[in-house]
Automatic annotation (TrEMBL):
Record keyword Hydrolase present: yes
Residues in Thioesterase domain copies: 25-102
Keywords: Hydrolase
Matches recorded under CDD domains: PaaI_thioesterase
Lineage: Bacteria, Bacillati, Actinomycetota, Actinomycetes, Micrococcales
Family: Belongs to the thioesterase PaaI family.
Stretch forming the signal peptide: none
Name under which the protein is recorded: PaaI family thioesterase
UniProt cross-references to Gene3D superfamilies, sorted A to Z: Hotdog Thioesterase
Amino acid sequence: MRFTEVEPGRVVMELSTEPDFANPHGTVHGGVIATLLDSVMGCAVHTELAAGVGYTTLELKVNYLRAVGLTGERLIGEGTTIHVGRRTAVAEGTVRNGAGTLVGHATTTCLILS
């Protein structure tokens, strides 16, 4: 994964699929998409925290909307914060393929670690 955009409350990361990402059906394993979603949402939360303050994922809810191929398909994950409080934060994320088609959506709740 590589960062392509970072701003307060929003992070975009990309990756290219490869055969090592395969599930038994010959498409990208859902765990790869979940990892991209967890990363962009968590990093979006992190952009709104003070220096020295951390976070951890409390809850992750993923919806898989479309299968993804294994041959260098570009996946773009975008995470945005919905709420950042003193103890918890909520964010949402999307993953789109190179054509802009939505392939996954998620929400997360994070625990803020002072």
